[in-house]
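Colleagues,

Please find the record for the two-part complex below.
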Amino acid sequence: MSIPPDVLLGEPLAADPTPDPPSGASGGASRAGALWFYARKLLAAVVSFFITLVIGFVLFQLMPADPVRALTQGRPTSAAQMQALRDSLGLDKPLWQRFASFVGDTLHGRLGFSWQFQEPVASLVGSHLWPTVLLMGVSTVISVSLGLWLGIRSGWRQGSVFDRISSGVSLTLWSVPTFWLGLLLLVAFSVGFGPIPSLFPADGMSDPSIAAAGWPHVVDVARHLVLPVATLVLGDYALYVSIMRSSLIDEMDSPYLLTARAKGLFDSDVRRKHAVPNALLPAVTVIFLQIGGIIGGAVTVETVYSWPGLGYLTYQALKVPDLPLLQGTFIIFSASVIIMNLAADVLYRFLDPRVRAQ
Amino acid sequence: MRVGTVRHDPRGPGRVRRLVAVALGGALLVAAAVGLGTGPASAAASDTNLTVTMDGSGIDTLNPFLSFYNGALNTFGLIYPSLNSLGKDGVPGPYLAKSWTTSDDKLTWTFTVQDGLKWSDGQPITAEDAAWTFNLIMTNLTAATANGSLVANFASVTAPDATTLVVKTKQPQANMLYVSIPVSGIPIVPKHVWSAHVADLKSYKNETYPVVGYGPWLLQTYQTDQFERFTANKAFRLGSSGAPKFDTLVVQLLKNSDASVAALKNGQVADTSVNAKQFDVLKADTKMTAVQEVGNGWTGLEINGGARTKSGKAIGTGNPLLGDPQVRSAIHWAIDKNKLLTNVLGGKGVVGNGYLPPAYPQWSWKPAAADAVTYDPAKANSILDAAGYTKGADGIRVDPRTGKKLDFRLGIHSDSASDAQISQFLKGWLTDIGISIRIDSLSFAQLNSNLSRADWDMLMDAWTTGPDPTYLLSIQTCGTLPDDTGANGNTDAFYCTPEYDKLFAQQVVTLDATERVKIVAQMQDILYQANYDIILFYGDGLEVYRNDHVSNLLFGPPSSTGLHPAQSVFWNYLDATPPGAASAAPAASSSKTGLVVGGVAVLVVLLAGAFVLRRRSTSDLRG
C-alpha cells in the first residue's frame, strides 16, 4: 500500500482527543490511566473492524456477482449445470442470510470457500501469505532504512547538493508508475541490454530445477527477490525521505538543539540523539501503516514478476469475482491494517511523553 | 536555519567505514547471488529438460472432476489417459480404446480397450477404470461439475470385461468420439485411487505427488501459482509415438506477456505464446522460431436483436430498433473487417465469416460469393434509407415509426486493448451511416451480468472452441434462453429460431461425418444471415520457441498462407526433442554474466575504497 507523502507530511499520529481520567501522582492512578488508554484503543480497533466488515460485505454485494460464466471458462456447461453451480455457491440465498453466515463464519475464524479454486479461503491465504510477507517485508525494511537515512541527511543539510539530488531523484522515482518501472527493470536486468547480460530471473519465486531446501534454495529465492524488491524500494522510499526530511526541518529551529550545541555536543550527536528522535514520530505512523499494508501485497509488482502472493490472489478473485475469496482477503487486509494502527497507538505512548501526559 | 556552533565528530569516518563495509558486503552478496544463480538449469544434471509457459488462466484445481481452467485441463491431458486421442489433423483416433464399433440402432458403442497398460503405480488399466469414471460423473452431482454435459446423453456405461467398454446412449450421439479426448474431453482416472475420494470429492485437491496416472508425463509437483514439474513416462506408447524425448518438463505460470518474453529471451523458458507486436520483434531473432497457427477462436460483435425468455416474454433493456434485420444488416455492411484485421492484429489472422473458427477445417464455412457481406458503407446507407430511417440534423438516423434515434450502447471489456481499438473503428464507421454508438467499458463480470439480464444493445464477444463444435452451436438454440425469472439461461446472444434448433437437433444425432458437416454448414449460414453475431476475425495463434532449447515442438506443415495447423500440448511436448549440439549458448551467456558480475563487484570495491580514502584525507578539514 502506498500513501501519498503530502497526506502525511509532518503529521504525527493524532492523540485521542478524549481526555483520560485525571492522573494523580500515585503509580496506581497512572497504571489505571494506561489501562484505560489501552482499553479505549482496543475497543476502537474492534469497532473499526466490525464497521469494515459491514462496509466490505455491502461493497462486494454491489458488484455484479453471477460468476458462473467466468468460472466455467466457456467449457461445455448446460443451463441446468450452471444453475446447480449457482445453487452450490449459495448465490440464490437472500441477502440477510448471506450476511448472517458471513458474520458468523468470520467470528468463528472461517473465511469461506473459494468459488474458483474450490478450496478454503484460509488455506489459499495461508499458501500465498509467506511470499507476500517476504517480498513486502524485505522491501519495506530497505525502503524505510534507505528513506530515513536519506531523509535525515537531506533535512540536516537542507538546500545542499546532496539534498537537491536526493530529493529530486526520490520524487522522480515516486512519480514513476510502479508497473512501468517494473517492466523497465525486467527488460534491463532480466533480458539484458547492450553489454549487460541477463542478471536476474524474469519470473516467480524459485527455480524449478533447484531443490526447495537448503542454502541453494535461499540463494535462489534471493535472486528472484532482487528485481521485485528493487521496484518496490525505488517506488516507495521517497515517502520516507519526504516525511523524515520535512519533519527534521521542522525541528531545526527548536531551542533544545541550540541548548545541545551550547553544551558542546558534536553536530552528529545533536542530530542523532536530539533532533532525529523527535523528528521520527511522524515516520513511525507511516511505517506502521505500511507494515499493516504489507499483507495486502503489491498487485502490480506481483503481476509483473509473477510473484505468487496475496496481491495477485486478490486480482484473480476480482476478475471472476470470487466473492468468498475477496471477502476473505479483505478481512485479512483490514485486520492487518487495524492491528498495526493499534500497535502504532501503543508505541506512541512509549515514544512520546506528551501522549502519556494527556 | 542552523543555530549554534557546529562541531563535527572525529569518529565520523569510522562510522562511514562501517557503512561502506555494510554496503560493500551487500553488493558482494548480491554479486554472489547472481553468480551462484547463473545458469542453474543448464548445470543441474545430465537430464534433458523442456521448460514452457502455462496457459494464462492458470490452474484452478488439479481435481479433474471440478476444474475448468485451461492450465489444469492441459495438465490432465498430459497425465491422464482418455478413451480417444485427437490426431494432429483434428480427427479422433485410438488411445485407451484401440478400436470401436456402433450398433445398428446407433445407440450402443462398444470400445475395445488396450491390454497390458499400467498406471504409474503399477496397477493395470482396464475398461473398469473408464466405466467407473463415466458412471461417477453420471451419478454424482459434484463429479458432474466440470464435465456433466458431456455424458448427459449416456444411458449406461459398463465394462463386461477388462478390455471391453460398452456405452449406451439415450439417442444417437454424433460426437461420441470427442467425449473423452485429451485436454477438452473427460480424463479417465484410476478407480483404485479415486474410489477412496468419492466422499470428499468436493474438497479433494489431488496433490499427492507423484500423481498416479498414465499419459506421456507424470506430475511430480505443482507449486501453487508458480510451476509444475513432470517427468517423462518412459512406458508411454501411442501408435507410432513412444515416450517423450525430454526427461523432464516444467510448465511455468507467467502472469503477463512481457515477463513471458523476458523469460524466453533470457533462456528461462523454451517456448511461449506472444502477441502480434512481440511476434514481429522476435521473428527477426535468429535464435528463435516464430510460428503462426490457424486460429481456434473468433472475435465478434454481438447484437441484441430482441431478447426473449423461453416462453417468448421480452426481457431486458435492449434497444428494440436492433430487432429490425435491416438495421443489423446495415451494421454488418458498414464494418471494414480487413481494416480491423490489419490494425488490431497486425494482419495476423483471417477475416471473419462463419461461426466456427478455421482451426478445425472440417467445420469451416464461408458464405457463397453472392451472400458475402463486405465493407460497403454506401450499401449500408441505402439499406437504412430503404427501411425508412432518415437522417436528422445531427446526422443520426431516426425511426419514423417511433421517432427514436438509432443510438446504441456498445459494451466492451475494460481489460481488452483490442476491444478498445475495435470500438473506436466501429464508432466511426457506424457514425458514417447515421448510427451513434455509446461505448461502455465494463469489467468482465459486469459485461456477463448485463448479458444474462439482456441489459445491452451490442457487445464485444469472443469464443474459442475445441474440435467438437456442439457446445458452441448449442448456445444459439432456444433451449438456452432464460426462464421468465431471468434465470437458468446460457444463451450467447438471445438468438432463437425453430429452423436453427431443428438443424441443431439433427446434427447431434447424425453419425455420418459428411452429412453432419453439411448440416453444420447450414446452421452457420443461418447465423450469418441473422447478424446476431457478426464475426469480425479469427486471430492466429502466435508462438515463439528457442532453437537452442528445443526442436520438433510444433507440428505442421504450414499451409500455403504460412499457417501451421492448430496445435495441441499433448503432441507438442510428446514430440519435442532436445536440440542436437546447440547447448553451448547458455554456457557462453553464463561466462559473460560472470565477467560482468565480477566487473561490477570490482568497481564497487574500487569506488568504496576511493570514498574511504577521500573521507580520511579530508577528515581534518571537516572536523
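The first helix of chain A runs from residue 5 to 8.

Comments are welcome before we finalize the supplementary table.
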